[in-house]
UniProtKB/TrEMBL annotation:
PANTHER family, A to Z: KINASE-RELATED (PTHR20953), P-LOOP CONTAINING NUCLEOSIDE TRIPHOSPHATE HYDROLASES SUPERFAMILY PROTEIN (PTHR20953:SF3)
The UniProt record lists the keyword Nucleotide-binding: yes
SMART domains: AAA (SM00382), R3H (SM00393)
Gene: ycf45
Ranges where the R3H domain occurs: 500-565
One MF term in the entry's GO annotations: ATP binding
InterPro entries (UniProt xref): AAA+_ATPase, P-loop_NTPase, PTPase_dom, R3H_AAA, R3H_dom, R3H_dom_sf, Spore_III_AA_AAA+_ATPase
Record protein name field: Ycf45 protein
Origin superkingdom: Bacteria
Key word ATP-binding present: yes
Keyword field: ATP-binding, Nucleotide-binding
Record Pfam families: PTPase, R3H, Spore_III_AA
């Protein structure tokens, strides 16, 4: 046999045998058609004009609608229809699918052209020869089954391995008891009913000692479990599944086991701090069934994940894997590229000039009041602003839907709006990705835990219903690091109304922290304020991870801010 490179392909389609099952006028119109080689399928629907669908166009084959006699003519010339309403033509790869009415009568046919394309797997031949299990992903019609058929032939004929094909719909090796030559020396096991595919998979391993098992369209939990059982016995698996990318399988509870499965894990305090995440995170449950995955974007452009486990782990941490992109050049050679990670874009924001604490005349240091504190010199802030991520740190799609439980919705919405976070505060728990609650409500709150269990939602708890704690909790949910204590706070976060009195008092507290407490390590007393404004100042101080207390009698009650001596 002549070995073909990626660019050298041979196509056999047995098209005359498919045209022979059509009523003579329809078959004759396609026999000499100029686009014959591009024919994809023929559609016969009762009462409608017959259609021929090509790669780039659709044409009517006659001006007379399809009759019941025309449908019966075609049905009589194909094999029996199985439980999935598919039939074939013996020793060809063509597939005929039926549409039925409520009484079970056939009222439509889709006659899909089956082609054996030799030389399609040159892009991933090295992966096939590695002996590791490979999962092919891609939209319908991109060529998954064609590639599967060619892989089976190469493994059986050229690598001399014992290959068994689980052919549920006879789509890989064709209809009839004798398989199509396109699979080479590979053996084919037919499946009586689609729901029995997982049983035939196990039977193949137990009875026929295969080195490789080829499976098309893994679609149920039992089939995914059977695939894992086969892989654990040391058999190489080559399979396909519906889904364009690995992320689709991760979000599909039925097929997630193919890439290792996803589970919610509660981390200890120490581990959560080390990772810089919340305590409830998503992690891969087990080693993936398939070590490699190929995303078939187009017929000549495939994305290859050489390590599925590593790709899944990165996606669960909110990072994008960098797989290989393989394509075919004009000369037929395979081109392998690896895209560079998107660089972070930095934006410099100017900081408005602010008066010093002494110029404001609104605060006094507690100790050494006669000594003028030196004014701290602050450099301009350089803030890194990244493109908004498409997934959260645990694989959730953004914007993240947060359901507040005993948490101030007003504070929550104000924080999201002011900081421009990719979060939606929802009242519908069915739409939520996570529950945000207070730590005090989590203790012994069986109703909340039951609610989270029913909806399969993680719970994120914060210490208090303060703006600082809410902001910190939202940052943790998005995997954003907390700002350093010296970083200026957005005063509008802590002022519900934004009045001049509130902003003036908050600015007083900010200047005290940034120009005395943190740089000089001195405690500071603020001017007397109302209880409402003191509460806002307390929340602002908490943002800087400092301690404050109120002292004195009304109307002269005021805040005292203490430095953090542990720093």
């Amino acid at each position: 046999m002549v070995e073909l490179t990626a660019g050298q392909r041979q196509v056999t389609d047995d098209l005359d045998q498919l045209l022979a099952i059509l009523p003579p006028p329809l078959g004759q119109s396609l026999t000499d058609h100029p686009q014959r080689e591009e024919l994809l399928e023929i559609v016969l629907d009762l009462g409608r004009l017959p259609e021929a669908r090509f790669i780039h166009s659709t044409q009517y084959l006659a001006e007379t609608p399809v009759s019941r006699e025309m449908l019966q003519y075609a049905v009589d010339r194909v094999g029996e229809f199985s439980g999935d309403n598919r039939a074939g033509i013996e020793r060809t790869l063509h597939r005929i699918s039926a549409l039925r009415n409520r009484q079970g009568t056939i009222i439509g046919l889709t006659c899909r052209v089956g082609r054996a394309v030799f030389g399609t797997i040159g892009m991933i031949r090295d992966l096939v020869e590695s002996g590791q299990s490979i999962l092919l992903l891609g939209r319908p019609g991109v060529g998954k089954t064609t590639a599967l058929r060619e892989i089976a032939r190469v493994l059986a004929d050229e690598l001399h391995k014992r290959v068994v094909i689980i052919d549920t719909s006879n789509e890989i090796a064709g209809d009839g008891d004798i398989p199509h030559p396109a699979i080479g020396k590979a053996r084919r096991m037919q499946v009586a009913r689609p729901e029995l595919q997982h049983q035939v998979m196990i039977e193949a391993v137990e009875n026929h000692m295969p080195q490789v098992i080829v499976i098309d369209e893994i679609g149920t939990e039992l089939e995914a479990l059977a695939a894992r059982t086969i892989a654990e016995r040391g058999v190489q698996l080559i399979g396909t599944a519906h889904g364009n990318q690995i992320e689709n399988l991760m979000k599909n509870p039925t097929l997630a086991d193919l890439v290792g499965g996803i589970q919610s894990v509660t981390l200890g305090d120490e581990e959560a701090r080390r990772r810089g995440t919340q305590k409830s995170v998503l992690e891969r449950k087990a080693p993936p069934t398939f070590q490699m995955a190929v995303e078939m974007l187009e017929r000549d452009r495939w994305v290859v994940h050489l390590d599925v486990a590593a790709s899944v782990d990165l996606l669960l941490r909110g990072r994008q894997p960098v797989p290989e992109i393989r394509s075919i050049a004009a000369d037929g050679s395979v081109v392998i590229s690896r895209p560079e990670p998107a660089p972070q874009r930095l934006e410099v924001k100017s900081v408005p000039e602010r008066p010093s604490w002494r110029e404001s005349g609104q605060m006094l240091p507690v100790v050494d009041a006669n000594k003028e504190p030196l004014r701290a010199n602050f450099a301009q802030l350089l803030e890194a602003t990244l493109d908004a991520p498409t997934v959260g740190p645990n694989g959730e799609e953004l914007p993240l839907h947060v359901f507040p439980y005993a948490v101030s919705r007003h504070h929550l919405e104000q924080a999201v709006r002011t900081l421009n976070l990719p979060i939606i505060v929802t009242k519908d728990i069915d739409q939520a990705d996570v529950i945000l609650t207070l730590r005090s409500h989590l203790k012994g709150e069986s109703k909340l835990r039951h609610l989270a269990h029913i909806h399969h939602l993680p719970i994120h708890a914060i210490k208090a219903n303060s703006m600082a704690q809410i902001v910190r909790g939202l940052r943790h949910l998005l995997g954003i690091e907390d700002p350093s204590p010296a970083e200026s706070a957005d005063l509008s976060l802590f002022s519900p109304t934004g009045s001049d009195d509130e902003l003036e008092a908050l600015e007083e507290a900010r200047l005290a922290v940034e120009e005395i407490v943190i740089p000089k390590g001195q405690a500071v007393e603020l001017l007397p304020r109302s209880a409402k404004i003191r509460r806002m100042q307390h929340e602002l101080i908490e943002h800087y991870q400092l301690t404050s207390c109120s002292f004195g009698e009304e109307p002269n009650r005021r805040l005292r801010i203490y430095p953090n001596l542990s720093r």
